C-alpha cells in the first residue's frame, strides 16, 4: 500500500483541503484547526473586520464626520489589520502543522493589497479564483516561498494559466479544479445555464490536463490538481485520488463543523437544507452563485426582474466598493441587484431572515449533525464514522452513504489506515492499494 500525500510548499499534507468561504465563515479557528490536523486550512480574506468588534467600532465612529473616501480607505485599512490577526491566530492554532492558505477573490477591488498583506502576515499559500489570476506571480514576487494556487473550472483555463505563468518563469504550486455544477458560492461558469456543461466533468478535466501537461513538458506531479465540488463521501476521495487528482477540496462540509467561524444559526441553515432549498442565480459580481433559499433570497429572486428594470448607477451602500464590478452600484441590469457585502455579513452573524447563505448542492457527510473537524477529516480519509454515528444507517446519517454507510466504513478500514507518524500529531493520512 502506498501513502497518498498532497505536497505543497515543501510540506506533506493529507489530501483534504478546506476551501475558503467568506464573509468570515473560514477564518482563523476553522483554518487553524484543519492545519492542526495536517491539512490545508484556508482563510477567506474578504471583509474580515466583522470578526473584530474594535475594528468595526473604528468605522462606526467615522460616519457623519468623515468623507466617503476617508471611510472607504479606513475600511480597507482595518480589513488588512483583521487579515493579519486571522493569519497569525490560525498559525498559532496549527502549531506548526499543515498549511495556512488565504483565499483572495480576483473580483475584489482590494485583491492586490490583500495578497500582499497575506504574504507579509506569514500565509503559506495564496488561493485565487473569481477571475483569472494572471498577475498573481507579480503580486507575490517578493515572497517566492508562498505557494500560489489558482482556482479554475475547465482545462482551457488551466492551459491559459500555465502558458501565461511559464512566460513569467513561474508555475502554480497546485490548481484547484472547482465544478460549478456542485460547488457553493460564486461559480466558475459564465452563465447559470452552463453550470452542468460537460467540459467541467472531473474525468474530462483530468484527462485533458494530462495532455496539456505533456504538451508543455510539465510532469504530472509538478502541478498537483485538487478537485472541488460535490465531494462528501470517503469513496469519492479514493475515487478521485485513484484517477490522478492529488487532493480534494470541500467547503460546505467544513462550514458546518464545530470549529467553523460562523454563527451556529448559519451552520443550522446549511445543514438542514434539502435539495429543493438550494437555488442558483447571478450574483452582483456577474458570476453564477449557489445558496440556500432563505426568506431574503426567496423574496429577492421574486423581485429580481423589477429591480433589474430599475438598475442605475449609485453610490456603494456600504461605502466599501468591495467589488471591481458590482451590478447594484454600477447599474448593470443583467446581473444581481443587491449588496453582497451586507448580505454575507448578515449571514455570518446568523441573521437567517436577511442573510445570504452560500452552500454547495450535495448532501453533507454527517447529515444535519454538527461535528468537529477531526471527525470530518477522519471520515473522508479513512471511511471511519464517529462511534455514535457508525450504526445510524440511512435514517441517522443523511448523505454519508445512506444505508451502505456501514459497508463503506468496513471496506475502507481494509484499504486504508491511520498513518502512525501523522496520528501521533493528531492528523491523518490516506492509504490505498
UniProtKB/TrEMBL annotation:
UniProt name for this protein: 2-nitropropane dioxygenase
Keyword annotations: Dioxygenase, Flavoprotein, FMN, Oxidoreductase
Coiled coil: none
Pfam annotation, one family: NMO
InterPro entries per record: Aldolase_TIM, NMO
Family matches, as SUPFAM superfamilies: Inosine monophosphate dehydrogenase (IMPDH) (SSF51412)
Species this protein is from: Pandoraea capi
Keyword Ubl conjugation: no
Amino acid at each position: 500500500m502506498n501513502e497518498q500525500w498532497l505536497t505543497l510548499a515543501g510540506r506533506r499534507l493529507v489530501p483534504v483541503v478546506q476551501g475558503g468561504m467568506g464573509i468570515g465563515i473560514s477564518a482563523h479557528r476553522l483554518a487553524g484547526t484543519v492545519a492542526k490536523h495536517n491539512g490545508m486550512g484556508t482563510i477567506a480574506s474578504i471583509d474580515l473586520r466583522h470578526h473584530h468588534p474594535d475594528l468595526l467600532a473604528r468605522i462606526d465612529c467615522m460616519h457623519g464626520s468623515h468623507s466617503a473616501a476617508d471611510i472607504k480607505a479606513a475600511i480597507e485599512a482595518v480589513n488588512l489589520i483583521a487579515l493579519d490577526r486571522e493569519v497569525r491566530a490560525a498559525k498559532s492554532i496549527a502549531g506548526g502543522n499543515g498549511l495556512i492558505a488565504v483565499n483572495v477573490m480576483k473580483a475584489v477591488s482590494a485583491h492586490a493589497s490583500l495578497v500582499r498583506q497575506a504574504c507579509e502576515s506569514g500565509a503559506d499559500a495564496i488561493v485565487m479564483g473569481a477571475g483569472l489570476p494572471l498577475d498573481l506571480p507579480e503580486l507575490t514576487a517578493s515572497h517566492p516561498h508562498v505557494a500560489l494556487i489558482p482556482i479554475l473550472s475547465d482545462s482551457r483555463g488551466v492551459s491559459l494559466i500555465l502558458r501565461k505563468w511559464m512566460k513569467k518563469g513561474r508555475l502554480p504550486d497546485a490548481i484547484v479544479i472547482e465544478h460549478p455544477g456542485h460547488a457553493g458560492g460564486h461559480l466558475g461558469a459564465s452563465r447559470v445555464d452552463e453550470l452542468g456543461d460537460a467540459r467541467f466533468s472531473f474525468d474530462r478535466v483530468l484527462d485533458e490536463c494530462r495532455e496539456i501537461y505533456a504538451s508543455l513538458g510539465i510532469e504530472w506531479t509538478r502541478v498537483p490538481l485538487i478537485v472541488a465540488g460535490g465531494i462528501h463521501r470517503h469513496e469519492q476521495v479514493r475515487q478521485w485520488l485513484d484517477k490522478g487528482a492529488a487532493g480534494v477540496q470541500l467547503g460546505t462540509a467544513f462550514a458546518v463543523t464545530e470549529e467553523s467561524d460562523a454563527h451556529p444559526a448559519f451552520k443550522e441553515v446549511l445543514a438542514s437544507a434539502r435539495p429543493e432549498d438550494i437555488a442558483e442565480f447571478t450574483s452582483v459580481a456577474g458570476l453564477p452563485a449557489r445558496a440556500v433559499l432563505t426568506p431574503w433570497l426567496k423574496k429577492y429572486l421574486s423581485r429580481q426582474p423589477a429591480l433589474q428594470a430599475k438598475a442605475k448607477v449609485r453610490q456603494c451602500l456600504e461605502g466599501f466598493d468591495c467589488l471591481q464590478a458590482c451590478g447594484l452600484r454600477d447599474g448593470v441590469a443583467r446581473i444581481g441587484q443587491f449588496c453582497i457585502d451586507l448580505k454575507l455579513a448578515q449571514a455570518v452573524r446568523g441573521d437567517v431572515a436577511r442573510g445570504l447563505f452560500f452552500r454547495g448542492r450535495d448532501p453533507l457527510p454527517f447529515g444535519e449533525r454538527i461535528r468537529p473537524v477531526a471527525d470530518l477529516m477522519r471520515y473522508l480519509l479513512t471511511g471511519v464514522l464517529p462511534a455514535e454515528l457508525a450504526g445510524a444507517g440511512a435514517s441517522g446519517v443523511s448523505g454519508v452513504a445512506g444505508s451502505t454507510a456501514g459497508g463503506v466504513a468496513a471496506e475502507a478500514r481494509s484499504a486504508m489506515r491511520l498513518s502512525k507518524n501523522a496520528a501521533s500529531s493528531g492528523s491523518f493520512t490516506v492509504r490505498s492499494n
